[in-house]
Each structure stands twice: as C-alpha cells, then as structure tokens.
C-alpha cells in the first residue's frame, strides 16, 4: 500500500502528465483492505468532505493485490453524497415500505493488480458540497481461492483513492433585493443566501447591456447579450442541461425580461448560485421577489390557529384567547411572565392579510431527544411546556413537520417513521385517507388546487381501516427532512373542514425496522444487529444466518430448512466432545498443562459454534443470548479464542513430545503463546495460523531427537510402542488437514468441519501417552542407559539383566547416595 501514493501521484488526472510537474497535490487520500461481501462490515469505507463552490471533483481509485500470482479480480466501488451507500451485492430483497432512493449514487468496477499502472477515474462536475462516501468490496459471486493455494499465502486485496478538487473562481455574493450585476469574464458566478422562512422566490433578469464585446466571437448576433442564465441550489450550475434541479434561460437579448421561479426552495439556509455566460463583459439588472412565512412552530405568525393540548396539536380557528399550551405543563424554557406570545390575544400582531402569508403552510419542527445508547433518538413536537407526537391533519391544507439528520452522528442508523390514525376520535361516516409525503431538504410539493403531490416512492397513504403506516430509510442522508400530511377528500368537500388526529412516531434506531428494546431482535429471528466504528464513521447493519439474506434478513430464497439448521448446530457443537478423551488421558498422566489446553479448546469451540449457529434462532436463554451478542457479534472474542486455543493445543503437545528439560519447555511454551496470539490476531482464518507454528514445533522435535542421538553416539530409532501411538496420531492429523484443504467449502462446512474436530481430537488421544512425564527413578535409569525413552530404539534384556535392573531400581529408592552412574552402567555390562 505504500506504493499507492507514488503511483497515484505520478499519474495526472488531466492527460497523463506528472502531478508533480503540474504542482497539484491531492486534497484527500484513503486506503483500506477489501473483503468478499457477506455483511456491510466487510466493506472498505472512505469519507471525503467536499468544500462548497467546486466546479469539479475528481476521485481516482487503484486496487492492489499482495502477490503477483494472485488472480486479478474486480473491486466494486460505490460512491454517494450525503450518507453511506445503500448497496445490495447479494441481490437480497428489502423489506416492505423501505425508502432506498438516493440523491447521488453510482458504482464502478476497478481491476486489481500487483503493481497498478492504470487507475480508475470518477469525475463529478459541479458536485454538491459536504460529505461524500465510498464503499469498496469484492462481489460475492467472485470465484473463491482454493484452500490448497492458501499454503502459498492468502491473497489479500486493497483499494486506495485520492481526491482533487477544482474550485470555481470569483463567485460574487448578492443580497435579496434589486441590484445590477456586472460580469468580469465569460463565465460569471453569483450566489444568494435564501433563509428558511422564504416559501418561494422569483429572480427577474432584465435590461442587459453589453459593456465590452468579445471580438473573437463575431458570429453572435448584435442583440444577443447573455447566452445562458442558470439557477441552481447548493452547487454551481451547469452550462448545459443535466436533467437536475436547475433552471436556465437561453439567448437573453437586451430587450428580454427573464424570470427564474423557485416554488420549493431548499432549506437549511441554502445558497442559490447564478451562472451567466456572456459574449464579453455585460451588466444586467437583477430583481428578487420573495415571500416570507415567518418562523415555524407554535408561536410563529403562520400558526396562530394552532394550540398544543393534552391530546396533541390541534387546530381551532374560533379560539381567540387563552394559553397556547396546557397551563399545568412543565416549564422547559424561561420566558417573561407577560410574554405576549405565551398566549393568544386579539391584539397580538399576527396579521396574515398579505398575499405572501395567504399561501403559507403551517410548519412545525420536531425536537430530537437522544437516548443514552448509540443510534437511539426520538423526535417529538415540543412547545414550552409540552411534548407530543399527535397532530391534527386537515383536508383544506397540509401541515408540514420538519426534523434534521446530523452528519456522522445519525448516518449509520435507520430512520423509522410509524404513522397511526386515532380511531377512537373518528366521528365521520365516510372513510377518508391520509396522504403522507416525505421530502428531503425541501418541503413537499403543493399543486394549484391546494393538495399535496409527491412521487410514488415518497408517499404513504393511510386508510382509516388500516390506521397504521410505515416508512423506513436506511442510512438516511443528512440535512432537513419534511413530512407533509393532508386528508384526501373529494373537491366538493374541501371547504367542509374535515380533520383527523394522526400520530407521527419518528425515531432513529440501529439496523432494521423492528421496534424492540433488545438490539439482538432488531434484525429478526434470522440475523443479529451489530454496530461498527470505522474511524469517524459509525454504522449499524444486520448479519444474516442460515442462508437468509437482504438488508434485514427477510429474504428466504436460499434459506436452510429448520431440520438443516438443527443438524448443523448439533454437528458443530457435539463433535467437540471428541476432545473429552484427550482431556481425561492428559489428566490420567498428570499432564495438567495439556489437559487445560484441550479443555479450553473444547469449551471455546463449542461456545463459538453455538453462538454462530444457534444464537440467530433466539432459542438460547436471555443471559446466553446477551453473552453471545457481546462476545461473538460485536467483539469477536469467541472466534479468537477458538482458533487460538486449538493451535496452542498442538504446539504444547509437540513441545511435550520433544522431552526437553523443564526450563526449556516453559520457555518454548511461552514463545508459542506469544507467536500464536500474533498470528491469530493478524488473520484468524488464514493458513499462517497453522502453517507457521506446527512446522516450527516439528522442527524442534527433530532437533530434540538429534541431540539425543548425538549424546548416545547413534541414531535414535522409534521403538514398537512409539510406532503404535505415533502412526495413528499422524494419520488422523494428515486426514484432518486433507479434509480442511481439499474438501471443506461453504456448502459442506458443517459436515467437514465436524469431522475435522473429531480427527484432530483423536490425534491428540494418540499423542498424549507419549507425552507422559517420567518419574525420578525412570529418569535415573534412562540417564544410566538401563532403559530407553518412550520413542527410543527398543532394548532387549535377558533375565539376569532384568534382575539387575530391578535390584538397581530398588537400590535407587532406598539409598539416597547411589553409585555413580558410570559404575552402575559398568555393573550391567
């Protein structure tokens, strides 16, 4: 990855020239490891913060592989503005009522290479400012690498990117009102700050005059003054039609009067940009006409007929006095006692007679209430003394409610909107429907007849018979969101004043759409919800099990049957009982270190597979469910312990077979503890976990036999007893490795891995007797040459020799100062 910057910086973004030669340095750079997609946690997530007023943003990507013999694959990279990309690589379905429309989302494919010489460019012209995000991953359909190739080392893939921003020059600020604009170049930009209280505005361009003509363009007509005038919100306009939210006028002459209307301005105090393309320097009169609806909320000028009562926000056009809120409510904020806005008085200056305010819609802002847990937020309508989520919805005009999604803090959650009609307060014989329109960064559209209109994927219709409606937005884009509510009724009933009470339950929560207090239930019975922190990026996603897929684990197209799930769970957990004989044998021979290692291997492997296969069924007790969620899903502790204890068991077994002295055995076991911990943490599923410590242990075993042979002056050959145990143990080990390397796949994992448990446990049962600790008398006899070690060459003694061995053994037990060992050996000759 260190070569990434050198390669990316050495290739120009504008025609192959050196970046250094042009003096351009990247504004941002990112790099990360990519994995095969199974859950959202496998993606490499990059963040870019684009400044405002850019004319071009160029993203450059390069994909790398760690070895030249690794296969070149395609890395999928998706880029989006405003929030994390919502992707669906496994073609799983989304749950009902999911809103997955994105303002900016595109995906590209990047080829991997050991030394990348051609990078993938993704230019964005006139981009929106603020956060942009990319996610990179390997497609699930990419052919997997064979286990046999892992012996050479795992193929790892990474992706890196840089970004270069080009800023538009000389953007002049203008104010709301009448003024004259003068251009200084062919392309001239101006910007206007539009407050949130402006419901609509109109820009009028007139009296265009040519000050200095461009003689290099003689083909333009004399009366032509402006070739193009364009208006766009939040970013500089395009000089051509891009089929976006942009208005433009062509070929404005000196006599023309051009109007650019914006009926739904973008909110959050957005800037609007004007582009003038002229044939030379010109001057043109600018007039801005706009309305003003005042402040939103209960005490705003437009909302004078709204009152906050115990049952919710209600409309009452006949109420002319009294408090705007319940008097018994808790005073949240401090205001003067005689504040005229605290209650409605006839003398209050809330006049709506001007044409501007006659077209204003009642607007209310929802207040966010953050809970102590991450991604748990509730939005409620707040007054000075009262909270509520019940509002009155009318048929004569809509009501708009607004709430804001924050950057970084809220992007990784799911926005959940539950709607409910209060059927207890229905007094109408007819069955009416409530139209709910969702809109991002601007208020919903209102047609000329006073009714709201919105796209099919942005609306929800509540029927009185259904009473409930839902809308879910995964990874919501930051900014202002609006909910418009209005009763659908025939045109002849528009003046009758029909109203209903509707509950707007708006909240943020992790993962899916299910409303549960326990986070492990948010993804349903077939998945678990996990939270991930990737630098400054925080997000939540579902991890599906048992063949289920989809954003919330609802797609059962490839799901396993209940019988398959039970068999899989039993095989992977009960097969670990094969380690129990090895534990008992080690205890019988008083090999306490080995018995503890084998027991922890059995325990962690059983617990790991139980959480992996059974926790998603929610059939475990609550305490076990919570423990699995903390140790397995969020922190992956059990996975580490499973691989670590299994490898450590074989290491200490091999060291015990070497028959080194006690101090050297302790030293080598400590080395194994440290080495295996590093390897498992580096890559738990890689071949290095077994490929490095096991051969190293076997090498130490050979060294021990070499030392013994040198001390005796001959090659040490295994005796019959050693072969009886060693050959079956080695055979079981080789067979287990063959299963792992040649047969195990994702489809056969449960069966093959269970067999792997059994054969590896059997191999330990054969090795344990050879690890038996010698007694003091046996050590003395071995040193004297009378008997051999458990795996030394077999020695045949006659009856007299056997009698002498027994005599010497008894003498060693009774005499604290036995004969010197050379003398003992001499007696046996």
TrEMBL record:
It is found in: Cell membrane. The keyword Transmembrane helix applies. Residues 1-21 form the signal peptide. Disulfide bonds join 544-553. Keywords: Cell membrane, Disulfide bond, EGF-like domain, Membrane, Signal, Transmembrane, Transmembrane helix. The chain crosses the membrane at residues 566-588, 664-682, 688-707, 723-743, 749-771. GO terms for cellular component: plasma membrane. PROSITE patterns: EGF_1, EGF_2, EGF_3. Belongs to the TMEM8 family. Coiled coil: none annotated. The keyword Transmembrane helix applies. Residues 514-554 form the EGF-like domain. This is Transmembrane protein 8Alike [Megachile rotundata]. It is a multi-pass membrane protein. It comes from the Eukaryota.
